[in-house]
Amino acid sequence: xxxxxxxxxxxxxxxxxxxxxxxxxxxxxxxxxxxxxxxxxxxxxxxxxxxxxxxxxxxxxxxxxxxxxxxxxxxxxxxxxxx
Length: 83
Fold this sequence. Notes:
Elements: H1 16-26, E1 29-32, E2 37-40, E3 43-47, H2 51-59, E4 65-67, E5 74-78
Antiparallel strand pairs: 1-2, 2-3, 3-5, 4-5
């Protein structure tokens, strides 16, 4: 049985022009595209690393931003927040 090669991060080959189109479409400004850090409505958001960080943010009543829903949901917290 052949093992498939694991694909690298797909966004590493994104051109600056593509990033600008994404920013315009979503209404955000990326601070660091590779890390998923962006600015929206004056707040800089970073992705939640794991479920423990998510629980800490919830217990601390930290404002969170959720993109999508269900199993593919991705939560973001303000960049300055530390668990």
